[in-house]
Amino acid sequence: MAFSKQSRKQTIENLKNTPLDLLIVGGGITGAGVAIQAAASGIKTGLIEMQDFAEGTSSRSTKLVHGGIRYLKTFDVGVVADTVQERAVVQGIAPHIPRPFPMLLPIYDEPDSTYDMFSVKIAMDLYDRLAGVTGTQYANYTISREEVLQREPGLKKDKLLGGGVYLDFVNNDARLVIENIKEADELGAMVASHVEAVGVLHDDNGKVIGLQAKDNLTGETFDIHAKLVINTTGPWVDKFKALDKGETFTPTLRPTKGVHLVVDDSRLQVPQPTYFDSGADDGRMIFVVPREGKTYFGTTDTDFTGDYEHPTVEQPDVDYLLAAINNRYPEADIKLDDIEASWVGLRPLIAANGSSDYNGGGANAGKVSDDSFNALIHTVNEFEDKKATREDVEHAISNLKTAHAEETLSPSQVSRGSALNRSDDGIITLSGGKITDYRKMAAGALALIRTILDSEFNVTTKEIDSKKLQVSGGHFDPTNVEETIKFYTRIAKEVGMSEKEATDLANRFGSNTGRVVTYVQNGAADGLSLKETISLRYSVNEEMALTPVDYLLRRTNAILFHADTLPTLVEPVVAEMGRLLDWDANEQAAQLAKTKEVIAETQLDALK
């Protein structure tokens, strides 16, 4: 099914002329999750995004679907419970994207360490219990100092006590968004990128009846009418609220900036994702993740007040991460010139800390109360002295109760809870959260939307089980991923690709691989492999890739993890996109220049 620049024109005409039940503002993971569920529920749905899909926060995460074990250091049990349970749900609805990959957590005997060997086992047991993986092949375990160094000889040996190993999932954040978006489109949603909300429409009673929108590709301004409008703009939530002149509001977010850096694995090799304290006595933790022959590490966590549309990596960000990585891997000696790529994103943290009751945390979510915490530690001590059973410990864990969180917190302590609210004039706002719990956030919003449509507009919709609503490319048995990917690999190999190329294609597109290989009919484009050619053609025609950056950064990870291929890849990609999208010479030159500018920024040329 076409989902392209050509179909976008018709979509915009439909948005102009079709009264919607629901208009979603924001095409990141939150808006995409609402769109797929709304369309599946029979709700007449539209979605607009002012940039490319996932161009903001949703393509700039740590690229993991994880439960946030670090939130257990402040015992933010509500957030961890939601997200750790959602990992398996997301893997079920997008089985070609997140993959299980156990995480190593080295433990050091240092002041203010998040965990010691005793407390990490308690945290991991709680983590597994919340996730429901106790007693499975993915259950956590601890390893000795010697075993940690066998796995990662480059780790700092001084004060290393041992380590914990627990389950997490690697993820492709941008592809998770686009696959949700594509499925929403297939289900009938009217979805358009590069359309910006510029005003809010009200009826004579002051109730919101739609938005004024601007097509950022043509400059045209037009109205979109809808019974309900939902704000899913991530870090822009407060900025969008400011458009609503019919409401006064207090800012609710505290955006923080997170930076990640990429080096070749010849400079830093790790066998599995690794997670440790920064070593800077600041309460932060750092991920180090192997991917596609590279290793990336992050993240920073600093308050942000700059340009939301264009956050940048600055020298202090690089200095901080290099200090952290070289402290933990002292022989690596990573320098600025070793950095092949980087990315920076904003987290839409809710300023008033603590999970909302919508996100399962309850009114007092946040830190565990002193009584509950002391009771747990007492029970664990009793267990160590053989005076209590494992069941006693599990009971103490399950009875943890939370207290009000501290009023003043550092950025890395602010909760990742979400919030769902409706203003007096009717706009719904879904904010906060983590990429891992996007499906659950959307389900909560849909429950409210369906209730309002029924009670206020007499619109009946159907209830769906969003835990089984698979995204585009994910329409296969999630318990049989390996064999299914092998099947799609064979399909790709049959049109002339190598095993490696075919496997990469199958992993990227999942059950859509059969559609992708239909683009072989015109052969390979000049300067591109057959795999790259058909991937590009599919992305332009069926994934709304409108620029080379859309393709090289968000439909694929070439700019982030394949910097060595870019010198020979960029110009052929621009040329083939020019042919597909009818660009003249001036437009091709402009697109080439923009692509090189983005690559230079990603590679930190200005700092180098």
From TrEMBL:
Sample GO molecular function, one term: glycerol-3-phosphate oxidase activity
Keyword Coiled coil tagged: no
Transmembrane residue ranges: 20-40
Enzyme class: oxidoreductase
Domain FAD dependent oxidoreductase: 21-353
Entry's EC annotation: 1.1.3.21
Matching SUPFAM superfamilies: FAD-linked reductases, C-terminal domain, FAD/NAD(P)-binding domain
Cofactor(s) of this protein: FAD
GO BP: glycerol metabolic process; glycerol-3-phosphate catabolic process
PROSITE patterns: FAD_G3PDH_1
Keywords of this entry: FAD, Flavoprotein, Glycerol metabolism, Membrane, Oxidoreductase, Transmembrane, Transmembrane helix
NCBIfam families membership: glycerol3P_ox_1
Entry's family note: Belongs to the FAD-dependent glycerol-3-phosphate dehydrogenase family.
Protein's name according to its UniProt entry: Alpha-glycerophosphate oxidase
Organism this protein belongs to: Lacticaseibacillus saniviri JCM 17471 = DSM 24301
Native organism taxonomy: Bacteria, Bacillati, Bacillota, Bacilli, Lactobacillales
